[in-house]
Amino acid sequence: MKTxxxxxxxxxxxxxxxxxxxxxxxxxxxNAVVERHSMEHVASRxxxxxxEYGTAQLLKExxxxxxxxxxxxxxxxxxxxxxxxxxxxxxxxxxxxKQMWAWGQTYIQEDLHAALTASGAQMIHEAADVALHDITDxxxxxxxxxxxxxxxxxxxxxxxxxxxxxxxxxxxxxVRREYERVYPFAWLGIMVERPPxxxxxxxxxxxxxxxxxxRNPMLSRYYVQTPLSDRIEDWPDDRFWxxxxxxxxxxxxxxxxxxxxxxxxxxxxxxxxxxxxxxxKLFLAGDAGHIVPPTGAKGLNLAFSDVFYLSRALRSHYxxxxxxxxxxxxxxxxxxxxxxxxxxxxxxxxxxxxPDEVPFDQKIRExxxxxxxxxxxxxxxxxxxxxxxxxxx
Length: 393
Ligand code: APR
Ligand code: PHB
Fold this sequence. Notes:
- It contains twelve helices and 21 strands.
- It is of the alpha/beta class and 393 residues long.
- The chain has a domain of 233 residues: FAD/NAD(P)-binding domain, CATH 3.50.50.
- Strand 11 and strand 12 form a beta hairpin.
- The longest helix is centred in the last third of the chain and has 28 residues.
- The site of adenosine-5-diphosphoribose (APR) has 28 residues, from helix 1 and helix 9.
- Keywords: FAD, Flavoprotein.
- This is 4-hydroxybenzoate 3-monooxygenase.
């Protein structure tokens, strides 16, 4: 076995792990990323494309916003449309004075790979059998690369290995509490090389939700709610477009430019939080600690908010000799996580048809939407939540 030492081992090279590595590198904090898949594989994943205000600021602060500012699109809000009811615009400009960005996670991942490669950061891809050891005392991570077993000794392990990674499992069951809601439907998403609609648009329809998103002037992403039992093969392009267009109001359906899909994927919806996010020298960030349904696009934004708190904590530890932020990381990150879980759940409930619901549920849903249409305080609250709450001092 080959043994080496670093200050921080980051398990997982998705957006959370790489952003953390990038920020720590800028502070001169020695770290290594250990990722199971190849760089190409990780970079090819298609995920949401809405950046909260705070996420965009974080990219700017750390020299990663050049392409976003050039090729992305600043957004003043998002649209909700409703079968037989007026449209509603989540007016960020009016209620918060701030904007969000239409900018794909895939591009962020590419920029992170480029920045880390250029700075000579230690990224170990295609690492097999990644395991965490002795996390309450003398932590280390072992893995196998090209048939050779390695051990990385460290001060801290950051578990950024997504929902299925080993880090969360390393926290003993008797201290770990998991909170979960699994939804009885999925989102089917397609990518198409056609100009998108002007606004990110969420549509409520009695057949199910539909959504219009965007990546760039010639790339659109659309989604429809489907039953959990459906498979991608059940959804040829023709059926997808017919469903989408039926669920959108006439004026928007007529603007949608259809075409052959270049990608199609299906994702079940889940809300999940694991507490605490710290155990001994192990800290969880991103999907390793929590999952949100895609409604509201909080997943990447939440991963970056964890990274903001965790990088600040590690900087404070190494550069200022203070452990205040390390000690408060779990509770501080969780406050913001629960706020995002909350808005994602409420938007999911508002916009989807649940197969087991009763007419009472539909009346409540309509009443929630009417409240939004008629109440300025409700509009203001939603705008702040959609934009993303500020990070805590
Ligand atoms: N060993 C090493 N790496 C692992 C292991 C393992 N055993 N298991 C998982 N990983 C890696 C995955 O291959 C993946 O690249 O951890 C990474 C986790 O990345 P994501 O799942 O993207 O999670 P995260 O970085 O927290 O990003 C969260 O981005 O991917 C979206 O939907 C997600 O929007 C959310 C946000
Ligand atoms: C996306 O860009 O794919 C997207 C945007 C907003 C959402 C979900 C997905 O709520």
